[in-house]
Structure formats: C-alpha cells, structure tokens
Amino acid sequence: MFVYILGFLLIWFLCWWMRDKLKVGKVSDKYVFITGCDTGFGNLAAKVLDVGGFRVLAGCLTEEGARKLKERTSSRLKTITLDITKPESIENATDLIKQEVGNRGLWGLINNAGIPGILCPTDWLQIEHFRRPIEVNLLGPIEMTLKLLPLIKKARGRIVNVSSVLGRLALTGGGYFPSKFGMEAFNDSLRRDMKYFGIKVSCIEPGVFVTKLTDCGLQRHEKQELWNHLPPDVKKQYGEEYLKQSDTRQEKLVKKLSNTDLSQVVWCMEHALTAKYPRTRYSAGIDAKLLWIPMAYLPTFATDYLLTKDIVIDSNAV
To answer: Any catalytic annotation for residue 176?
Structure first.
C-alpha cells in the first residue's frame, strides 16, 4: 500500500513540475508596470524583466532612483514618477501607462512598493505610525490596481502582489503587519473576482531579505526616538533594559535569517508573469518555507510562546 501511495505522489509531483514549466510564449510585445523600483526587489525586477525582453514601465519615487535605473537598463525601459500614497500621482501614472501601452493593454502589474514603518510595542505608537505603512503597502496598491484593471482586462494579463510571509504572522506592533494581512485578503478576493476574465493573480510572500525594510540601524534609531518621548509611567512599565533587549533580539534574528539573494523573489515575479499556469502563492526564502509558514499553523499558544519567550518586562511596574 505504501508503495502505491509513494508512486502516486511521485507521478503527481512530476505532472505538477512539468505543468509549472510551461511558458506563455514571446514577451517582447508585453508591457509590465512595477511599483517601487528605486531600490530592492522592484529595482532588480525591472532590470531582469528588461533583459528578458519585456517592455518594462518602472514606477520610481525619486528622480535619482529613476536616473540610476535608466543607466543600467535598455532603451525599452521607461520610468514613471510615482508616489503610491497620492491619488494625483497614481492618476498621472495611469495616464502615462495608457499612452504607452495603447491598444495592447497591460500584461502585468507588480505591486511591489512597501515600507516597514516603526516596529515596536503597540502602546508606544500613535495612529500616524499605523496610517503611513497602510497607505503605502495596502491602500496605494489597491488604488493602483483599480486604476489599471481595464488595461489588464484588455490584455487578459497578470497581477502580482508582493505581500510578506509576515502577512500571516504578526511579530510586534506597528502598521506593517496589518497592511500585509490586508494585502493577503485583497489578493484573495481579487484572484477570485478576476478568474472570470482570464486574469491570473498571484501573491508573493518573501521571508527576511536584506533590503531597506530590514535596516536594523534605522529601526533602532526610530525606536530610540519613540522611547525618548514616551510618558514616564510607560517607560517604567517596560523597564530601562527593554529597549536594549529588543534591539539585540531583532538584530540577532535578522542577522541569522536574512537573505542577500534578492533574485529569489524576482524569480517568483518572473514566473508569475511568464508561466502558462502561474502559482497562486509564492514563498521566497528558506526561513519563509521552514520557519514562518509552519509557525503560522501552530496552535496560538505555541506561537505566542515562541515569539515572546525572551522578552522581559517588569510587570510589577504596571
């Protein structure tokens, strides 16, 4: 019986593997728009897809980011200034994309732009600390998608949403995790809604990669600024050693788990655009596959214990 089950699983895997390798054909006439191309995943994706023959439209927040990207890519690639938090900027980008793609429509939209915001205990924060990451990581991509859907329908194209494996598991307070949980929900509903129009929607869930989002020095500075302005009673509740402990813990975790190979995430983007049958979800990074996703399926009490066991707070001060 065991041999039959093993044989069935092997045949199933081989069929899945061969299906996963099927491609859509030539891409030289296909337009792809990527947000957040100044640095990180978006920057590398723009370069790789440009080399691969796509007609890349790269959304950049800064002129410097756009200039540097142009210097390292072909004349096919066009940059578009985009602040994902401003409706007028999204409207302007949409008009430029319409002019560029013409009647072909837009084959791919990669919602990649994102920021971490401040990651620290919830009672240190104000509503503004939640609002900014949610605007950049969730509301901006939603508005961008709504504006470009008519063009994507015309091409029967693809939408790729870059979430995070931490869209399944919130490690601490701040707006980053709610924004990524929200992106997961938006992605799921969009995928089902667009199925009837032949549009494929994929979600990428990277683990911990070395980008500006994992800059521990910046996080440490922002947390210190918050700590300096906390009410004395809150400082007393946490204790003077808490900030140092949390910084050390975060830096050890990032150092141990962070991956410098951004191409793993870009491969997921490229596959979602070029595969005949793209996956609905992509996890990038060993830590995503072997740590964060399994942890998200543990009983809640077990996950809570693992994520808080090294934190020491003076509960007598409350």
So the answer is: yes
Average pLDDT over residues 83-96: 97
Mean pLDDT of 170-180: 93
Listed by start position, the domains of the chain span: 25-317
195 or 25: which carries more pLDDT confidence? 195
Whether the CB-CB separation of 63 and 40 falls below 8 Å is answered with no
If pLDDT is split at 50, 70 and 90, which confidence band does 109 have? very high
d(CA 180, CA 185): 9
Average pLDDT over residues 140-161: 97
Q: Report the 10 Å Cβ neighbour count for 210.
A: 14
pLDDT band at 316 (very low <50, low <70, confident <90, very high): very low
Whole-angstrom distance, CA of residue 188 vs CA of residue 277? 17
Mean pLDDT over all residues of the chain? 91
The catalytic position among 31, 176, 238, 282 is 176
Whether domain 25-317 has CATH 3.40.50.2000: the reply is no
183: confidence class by pLDDT, cuts 50, 70, 90 = very high
Q: What residues contact residue 8 under an 8 Å CB cut-off, 6+ apart?
A: none
Q: In what order do the strands lie in the sheet with 200-206?
A: 78-81, 55-60, 31-34, 108-111, 158-162, 200-206, 281-284
The reported pTM is 0.91
